[in-house]
Amino acid sequence: MPHVVVEEKGCRDCSLCIEICPTDVFAHDDGRGLAVVRQEADCIGCTSCQYICPSRCIKVTDVALQRPFFRIENDAALVKRLLQKEPVSSALSPEDLKEALGDVSFRLLALADSVTETMGRGQKAVGRKAGGLAAAHLPEMYEGASMQEVLERMKTRFEGAFDFEPTVTDGAVSLVFKKCSMHRVVTAAGGKLGDHVLCQLFHEYWAGLVGAFTGKNFSVEMTEVGATCSMKLTPRN
């Protein structure tokens, strides 16, 4: 049976969990001004509450999470055969890609400004949490039998935006980026590589990704910043 927990100190009293729950597991405690679990036995394990909570203070455990397997490349190829249609991406021209890059760059820089304004020095936590959440949409990574295989799968998945070489030594992960989309965005904006908010978000994002795939918590150290950037992820005790 699913187990639902609300961390009371983190609850903002937004009532989003109460509104989205299809089986009315939650109720509002007017006296304390927060959401509480009232009917845990009715929980169906959809985890909608966990994902919608802006404070990330709801945890649903003892559930078998379904992975979005339609995102796996091999399955996407199968869907293509069944539908007898080419994916939209195959029709994109170099001009389309250039326009998309400009649009994404603008949005990333706007995101960096927004994070700085709202989170201040908490921006690294935002990047790490984003990596952990993104991992749920990359289910093929979890199929790796070893950390090295997981990293090789990540290399294939991200090759369009990042070209990196992964190595594992005594549990520590080293990622050497020879091509990085963030490098282009930050440089074009006149920012300082490594220190820019986007760089810091990106470093923690990768720590969150690798941590989610391997079940470990990593600290981040940039050992080289420039034309080539090197990142070292060390497991925390």
**Percent of residues in beta strands?**
15-25%
CATH homologous superfamily label of the largest domain: Trafficking protein particle complex subunit 3
Compute the number of strand runs: 8
Question: What strand order characterises the main sheet?
Answer: 5-6-8-7
Mean pLDDT figure: 85
User: Which sequence of SSEs, written as H and E, runs from N to C?
Assistant: EHEEHEHHHHEEHHEE
Task: Give the oligomer, counting copies of the same chain as homo and different chains as hetero.
Answer: single chain
What is the annotated CATH architecture of the largest domain? 2-Layer Sandwich
Total of domains: 2
Per DSSP, the total helix count is: 8
Summarize the main sheet: 4 strands, antiparallel
CATH topology of the largest domain: Muramoyl-pentapeptide Carboxypeptidase, domain 2
The whole-angstrom Rg is 20 Å
Distance between the termini: 31 Å
Q: How would you describe the shape?
A: globular
Low-confidence stretches: none
Instruction: Give the C-level CATH assignment of the largest domain.
Output: Alpha Beta
Supply the helix-strand structural class: alpha+beta
The portion of residues assigned to helices is 40-55%
